[in-house]
Amino acid sequence: MIYLSLACTKVKELALLFGHHSKLRLLDQEESDIKSLASTLNSLKKLLYLEIRDCKKLQIITDLPQSLEILDARDASSCSSLQNLPELPHCLTTLDVSSCSSLQSLPKLPKCLKTLDVRGCSLLEALPELPPSLEVLYADECESLKNVLLIPSTMVEQLKENKKRVRFTRCFELDEHSLKAVELNAQMNIMKFAHRHLFAQNHDKAIYVYPGSSVPEWFKYKTTNDYIIIDDLSSQVLAFIFCLVIYENSYHTGREELKMTICDGEGESKSKSDTLTIDDFYIYSPNHVYVYVMYHKKCSDFLISKAKDLVRFQIHVAYKRIPKQGHIKGFGVSPLNTWTYDNLVQQMKLRDSLNHFQ
Q1: What pTM was computed for the model?
Q2: Quick one: which of 82, 250, 300, 344 could link to 240 by a disulfide (CB 3.0–4.6 Å)?
C-alpha cells in the first residue's frame, strides 16, 4: 500500500496501523480525530506527503520521517496545544501551517524548502532564517510578526535566492528594519527574476506585497496618481518592473482584472491608445494600504512593444471594481537594462565589503 486515507475518521492513534505499511508514501488524515503524531511515523521510511489539515484535536507532533517532502497542516486552528513543530525533514519542499493560530515558533527550515505558508499564524513573532531555495512565502495575517530576516548576510547568498511570491498582508507589527529588508529584498529578487526571464516563452510573474504607503525610491518613474508620464527612455530597455500602492476599502480579497493603457501623448494630445487586460491580478486584505512590487512578463512585453517607437507616452492603470476617483495611491515604473541590474549587484557587493571591515 502506498496511499492511506484516514480523512474524516474517528481514528485517534496511529501506532497499531503501520506494522505492515512501510512502503506508504501518502498519508491523509484530514479532519480526523487524531490527537498525536507519535514517533511511529518514523517507521514510514518512504512517506512523501502527510496531510493533517483541519485535525482539530491534534496536540502533539513528534518526529517526522526524513523522507517527507510535503507537510500540509492547514486550518489546525483548534489545536490549542500545538505551539511548536519538531525538527523538519531535510527533504521537505513544502510546509503549510496556515491558520495554526497557536503556533508560536518554527524550527530551522530545511535547505531545499520551496514553499512556506504561515498565513493566519497569529502568535508567530519571528521567522527563522529562510533558505535560498525558497520560492514562495505567504505570511498574511501574522498579526504578531515583528522580525523577518529576508536579507542574506552576503551578496553571494543573495544571488542564490529564488523568491518570486512574497506576501506580508495584515502584518502591522513588522518593525522598520524588517520593512526595509522586505523592500530591498523585493528590489533584488524582482530585478533578478526579470533578468532571468527576459526570453522565457511563458508569461511568468514575480510579486511582493507588503504594508506601505508609497512607491519605493528605486523606481525611476513614480507618482501618486493612477497614470504616469514616461519620457527620456533608453532604447536598450529590456523589461519593465511595476509598483502599485493600493487602498481597498470594501471587504473583498480576490482575483481582479487589471487594465493597463498606453497613450502616445497626454491630455488632449492623445491620438492613439492600446489597452492590455490582465485577469490574474489579486487584491489582498481590504481596508489597508499595501505596496505591490511586481514583474509581469505579459505587461512588460506589452509596454516594450508599444513604446519602442515613442519618445513620450502615458501609462494609465485601473482595476475593474475601483471607482473613478480611485484607490490607487501610487504608481511606479522602473525600466530594466543590463547595467541597471549590474549596478545593483555592485552596490550590494560594496555593502558586503563595508560590513566586512566594520
Answers
A1: 0.86
A2: 300
